[in-house]
Amino acid sequence: MPSAPESILVSAGEASGDYYAAELVRHLRQRWPECRFFGCAGPKLRAAGVEPVIRTEDLAVVGLVEVLRHLPRIWLRYRKLTREAAARKPALAILTDSPDFHLRVAARLKETGIPVVYLVAPQVWAWRQGRVKTMRRIIDRLLCIFPFEEAFFRQHGVPVRYIGHPLASRVRPALSREEFFKKHDIPLDRPLVAVLPGSRRSEAMRHIPELRKAADVIARQRDTTFLLPASSTCGAAFFEAPLAGSQIRPIEGEAWETMAYCDVALAASGTVTVEAALLGAPMVTFYRVSELSWAIGKLLVKSPFFTMVNLIAERQVVPELMQSEMNADRIAEEAGRLLSDREERAKMKTELQRVAARLAQESDPMEAAADEVARVYEQVGRQ
């Protein structure tokens, strides 16, 4: 067994990846206390002691067309990160999600002889399957968090392990319902709606106008409390101006409490829908990009559903309001149906429990991920 690595590059391109990577770094520090970590770090990775060569917040862009105007900035960040990797020569790299950025980083690292562990598989099974050939060439170990992914990547020759979903055993509220409602002065006799527009500023701003109007429609039908738990990449202050005079109140973080105790969640398609499922929150999911991105995406996507909850369930469990369907009337209609029908909410909660059960593992996914990182490092040490 080789001695502990001197340094490891860690990179996360968005809020969920920042959380997963930070959890993995904590496990690795227990094994290798003297190891130094550096890379592309968000708030959670920085809190875990990872030196930020670049910041996760600088890469949080969504959409095939939307990303174009940000390319010069992203290219500069890519160059800075890969130059730093070449100079420091870490024992290995851990890249988390964000495939448009990280597959390019992985290719460059591979050229310089740095092994790559990739945490959270790119969704090549859904679209742009040609990327799997590149992954087979440049990734030393792929760590999947969804149960249906392992067989796909193994079939295509990618060295892969299914570790389980990192959130399955971690998602839980820190406050009781009574403590949370008291803290935010929420009336106990009103339904609570969680408003989850997305963790990136660009996607949140695309969704906020229709969510704001939907909240107005719902509030006219019944007295309702609307809370928006802001992500670390946005912050509550970011929403103060666009939500001024709105029914929706932004708060700093506390997403798990908001989802755990809400009657309905309005959730942008993404990791937050998995969190909501694990917390048993009945939900309406949505997403919107530019018309050009949507047109291109429809040609590339080969998947029966857009929302991960439905993909895991292998059937439609939660409503999906995509693109033109993501409008105030449809959101209010679906949310109103769930708020009005207790049996419908209970039925969805039962389906979400089944989804949560599929994601559960006996072992800790992050401990399994740390095992795989150690195996890759041991192989490198032997070489």
Count of individual beta strands: 13
Q: Could you name the CATH topology of the largest domain?
A: Rossmann fold
CATH-level-4 superfamily name of the largest domain: Glycogen Phosphorylase B
Q: Give the oligomeric state of the chains in this entry, treating copies of one chain as homo and distinct chains as hetero.
A: single chain
Radius of gyration computed on alpha carbons: 21 Å
- Residue stretches low in confidence (pLDDT < 50, at least 5 long) are 62-66
Average pLDDT over all residues? 90
Q: Decide which structural class fits the backbone.
A: alpha/beta
CATH class of the largest domain: Alpha Beta
Q: Using the alpha-carbon principal axes, give the shape.
A: globular
Q: What would your notes on this structure say?
A:
- There is one protein chain.
- This protein has two domains: 7-168 and 361-382, Rossmann fold (3-Layer(aba) Sandwich); 177-359, Rossmann fold, CATH 3.40.50.2000.
- Helix content is 46%, strand content 16%.
- It has helices at 15-31, 43-47, 71-88, 99-111, 131-138, 149-155, 177-183, 201-221, 255-261, 271-278, 291-300, 308-313, 328-340, 342-359, 365-382; strands at residues 7-12, 36-41, 51-55, 92-96, 116-119, 141-144, 160-162, 192-196, 225-230, 248-252, 264-268, 283-287, 320-322.
- Helix 6 (149-155) links the parallel strand 6 (141-144) and strand 7 (160-162).
- Helix 1 packs across helix 15 (365-382) and helix 3 runs parallel beside helix 4.
- The longest helix is centred in the middle third of the chain and has 21 residues, at 201-221.
- The termini are close together.
- Mean pLDDT is 90; it is low at 62-66.
